[in-house]
Each structure stands twice: as C-alpha cells, then as structure tokens.
Design a protein that fits this description.
It is built from 10 helices and 5 strands. The protein has 239 residues and is α+β, with helices and mostly antiparallel strands.
Length: 239
C-alpha cells in the first residue's frame, strides 16, 4: 500500500502543476510508486484533450487516435454511465471490433488488467482515469483492494487540475439542434441503446441515426459519445 506521505506528495505535485504536461510527469512518478504499467487520464468531451495526460507510449497514443478507438474502447463506452470505479474484467470485450482493439492494445503494452475511475466536472465534463498492469487475476485483486481508494483520490485531483487549465466553456452551436436531435441525444445520455431510443421516439433506427449525425455535425463532435458530452456540457440536455 502507498504510504500516506508519499501519496500526499503526489497530490501536492498535481495541485502545483502548471500544465497538463507537468501533470503527466507526476503520473509517471505515481505509476512507479504504485508499480503499474501505465496511468492515464483521458477527457472524452473534447477531442483535443484525448489522452492529454498519461504515461502511455507515443506509438499507442498515435495508434489510438488514428484508428478512432474511442468509438469501441470499452473503458470509454462502458464507463460513460458509471459513477463508481470499474474493473476492466467487468466490461464487455466480446464483440469482434473490441476484441481486435484489445489485441492491439496488448501488443502495445497496455496491460491485461485495468481499473478505471470515471470522473466528471461541474458542467457535465466526462473523463476517465485508469491504471493498467500485466498480471494474473489474483494479483490484480490484491492490488485494487489495497490501492482502490488512493486511485480514486488521485483521479479526482487530476481531473480538478485538468479543469483548471480548460478553455472557456464551449459556445452554443451556430445552428440549434432540432427537437428530435435533442431527444435522441437525451435518450442516449440516459443509457438507452439506439434500438430502445428509436422505439421510444417511434422512429426507425435509420432515422435515429440521421438525427444523431445531424447533432454531431452541429456540435462539431468527433463521435456520438463526444456529442452527448458536449450537449450536456453546454446545457442542451440534462441527465
């Protein structure tokens, strides 16, 4: 278990960091302190902040962005509606695209075990703070039992500091969302599947997709998750 004075030193360094790059350097020290492979903080609601603060290798960050893995990454998708920490073993890795993503991640040294704390800001910002390691299940259970609370604490400190560096809130889109576009994003934000959202709106999934894509374009969002988060952040929808 991390000694209290060591953890306090990490938290103080996060609070005094002058940039996200400096926070990333602190995360490298935290990685060594807790003896994991990687530590990473990823903002989801702003495309320019993806993987903004991490110990992940450059090759994997570039690969992740080039392949648009945020669309299938179970950590991003599966934690969107979660408020408690998530063990990666509890996420759904069964689909073919996700299995391919996992194989690629393992090849880049991400680690076969992971722990993610979803964190949010006051305006609906959504981010994930994760640690990963290559080990067996028994060793990982022991690690999370000993370090879980500290990981959550560091996650909130990193998120709070990242929000300090944030640019002014996103402006409203130049072209307002239609009622149907707003309803579609609201249902997805509540955790409904596309099929269920289409059923609630009494439309086909194809028509629902048209509304979602229209909202994405107006919000200048990279993907649907990004569109939902941006709509929440600027107050167009509420959950």
């Amino acid at each position: 278990m991390v000694r209290r004075h060591n953890l306090n030193a990490i938290l103080e360094m996060i609070e005094s960091a002058a940039s996200l790059e400096e926070v990333g350097a602190v995360l490298a020290r935290f990685r060594d302190l807790v003896e994991v492979d990687h530590v990473f903080y990823r903002r989801i609601d702003r495309s320019e902040s993806l993987s903004a603060c991490s110990t992940l290798p450059t090759a994997w960050r570039e690969r992740y962005a080039a392949m648009h893995y945020e669309r299938v990454d179970p950590v991003v998708v599966g934690c969107h509606s979660a408020f408690c920490p998530v063990d990666w073993r509890d996420l759904d890795w069964s689909s073919r695209p996700v299995a391919a993503y996992r194989k690629d991640a393992l090849a880049h040294g991400l680690g076969n075990q992971g722990f993610t704390a979803p964190v949010r800001g006051p305006n609906g910002q959504y981010a994930v703070f994760s640690v990963s390691r290559t080990c067996d299940g028994k060793a990982w259970d022991k690690f999370t039992q000993k370090n879980g609370r500290n990981l959550i604490l560091v996650a909130h400190y990193v998120n709070r500091r990242a929000l300090d560096f944030e640019a002014p809130a996103c402006p409203l889109p130049k072209q307002p969302l239609s009622l149907r576009e707003t309803e579609a994003l609201s249902l997805l934000a509540e955790g409904h599947s596309r099929a269920r959202a289409a059923e609630v709106l009494d439309i086909s999934e194809h028509t629902l997709r048209v509304y979602i894509e229209g909202a994405r374009g107006k919000l200048k969002a990279q993907n649907t998750t990004h569109a939902v988060a941006r709509a929440i952040a600027i107050g167009l929808i509420a959950v």
